[in-house]
From TrEMBL:
<feature type="domain" description="N-acetyltransferase">
    <location>
        <begin position="12"/>
        <end position="141"/>
    </location>
</feature>
<dbReference type="InterPro" id="IPR052729">
    <property type="entry name" value="Acyl/Acetyltrans_Enzymes"/>
</dbReference>
<dbReference type="Pfam" id="PF00583">
    <property type="entry name" value="Acetyltransf_1"/>
</dbReference>
<dbReference type="InterPro" id="IPR016181">
    <property type="entry name" value="Acyl_CoA_acyltransferase"/>
</dbReference>
<dbReference type="GO" id="GO:0016747">
    <property type="term" value="F:acyltransferase activity, transferring groups other than amino-acyl groups"/>
</dbReference>
<dbReference type="Pfam" id="PF18014">
    <property type="entry name" value="Acetyltransf_18"/>
</dbReference>
<dbReference type="InterPro" id="IPR041496">
    <property type="entry name" value="YitH/HolE_GNAT"/>
</dbReference>
<dbReference type="InterPro" id="IPR000182">
    <property type="entry name" value="GNAT_dom"/>
</dbReference>
<protein>
    <submittedName>
        <fullName>Uncharacterized protein LOC106166536</fullName>
    </submittedName>
</protein>
């Protein structure tokens, strides 16, 4: 696809695998340390044909991915332009192309705060949730005495897969089975499930990323179960390793956790959910301590 800019045409092409290295370098520069090459590859697998690399004069200047999740919804991810090529319309050209690829589907994502005006110019509207990606050395996980013994924690392989998918779906409008399969099988991932009297009351995954370890997602029925599961997941990381979580501002457990570790928390980025049309709210966002990804979250 050719888009005319001042002199030389911008070409929006299908990404080739070698360009993943370019993307990782841009993520590091941007401070997106809650990423890894393995997460990127999983996103590429999901996006299929919806991966665009922008080249100007044959040089890579930016990327975006679009994942057609269902007949009605697509997720935009990783819109990024190299700093030296910004403000020349490349980001807008990629957004227009993604919009064409999505056809009539609603496009959703979490926008980093500085990018919100750009998306608004392209007709996207803000949703009601704010998020931030926090990196912390987790010194304090507030768990009340006796809470641990109320619950059982199992490896995901020891739990009925359909029950786990149904649990995830109770937070969303549609089943995300394909997404969960892809994300849970990312190299180095450990997924644990928390049960109370044999019933699933939460689950979460931890995996290595640039900044240390990423917990994504962590859903549980109440703050206590969130903390018990968090403690178990953090135990997978080497001690004193930074742990990253993308926490919704309405998360009850998130508020308590951030307060307990306030001297050891660093904000990597802040954002808000946006979409091209109204999307239904996630019914139990208060119980979400960490989302799965900044893209694959809404519906
Ligand atoms: C957002 C981004 C892709 C825009 O690319 P671009 O090629 O500069 O986009 P355009 O030239 O079409 O539009 C520029 C607009 O982007 C927005 N923008 C500018 N700097 C930005 C920044 N550091 N971060 C985010 N958005 C920015 C502004 O609204 C800007 O408008 P202006 O030129 O009138 O000031 C680019 O700034 C970027 O890579 N930012 C860092 C990564 C990021 O935040 N991506 C969005 C994730 S949701």
């Amino acid at each position: 696809m050719m888009c005319s800019t001042s002199k030389t045409p911008l070409v929006l092409d299908k990404r080739t695998f070698g360009e993943a290295d370019d993307m990782m370098k841009m993520f590091v520069k941007e401070g997106w340390k809650d990423q890894s090459r393995d997460i990127l590859q999983a996103t590429f697998r999901l996006a299929g044909k919806g991966q665009l690399v922008a080249k100007y004069d044959g040089v890579v200047v930016g990327f975006v991915t679009l994942y057609d999740f269902s007949e009605t919804n697509s997720f935009l991810n990783y819109l990024i332009v190299k700093p030296e090529h910004r403000h020349k319309g490349f980001g807008s050209a990629m957004l227009r192309k993604a919009h064409q690829l999505a056809e009539a589907r609603t496009i959703s994502f979490i926008a980093t705060l500085p990018a919100v005006p750009l998306y608004e110019r392209h007709g996207y509207v803000k949703g009601k949730f704010c998020f931030a990606s926090y990196s912390m050395i987790m010194k304090h996980i507030p768990v009340s005495p006796g809470a641990g013994s109320k619950y059982e924690i199992k490896a995901s392989r020891d739990v009925d897969w359909n029950q786990l998918v149904n649990y995830d779906t109770s937070y969303h409008v549609l089943s995300r089975e394909h997404v969960l399969k892809t994300f849970c099988s990312i190299k180095g991932s450990t997924t644990k499930v928390i049960l109370e009297r044999g019933k699933i009351v939460g689950y979460g995954t931890i995996r290595p990323v640039l900044a240390g370890y990423l917990i994504a997602p962590l859903y549980a029925d109440n703050t206590e179960a969130c903390m018990v599961l968090l403690r178990s997941l953090v135990g997978v990381a080497p001690s004193n390793s930074p742990v990253v979580l993308v926490i919704p501002n309405v998360s009850q457990a998130g508020k308590i956790l951030l307060d307990a570790n306030k001297n050891d928390v660093r904000v990597l980025w802040e954002g808000v959910n946006m979409s091209s049309k109204d999307t239904p709210d996630i019914p139990k966002m208060n119980n979400v301590l960490a989302i799965l990804s900044p893209a694959i979250c809404f519906l």
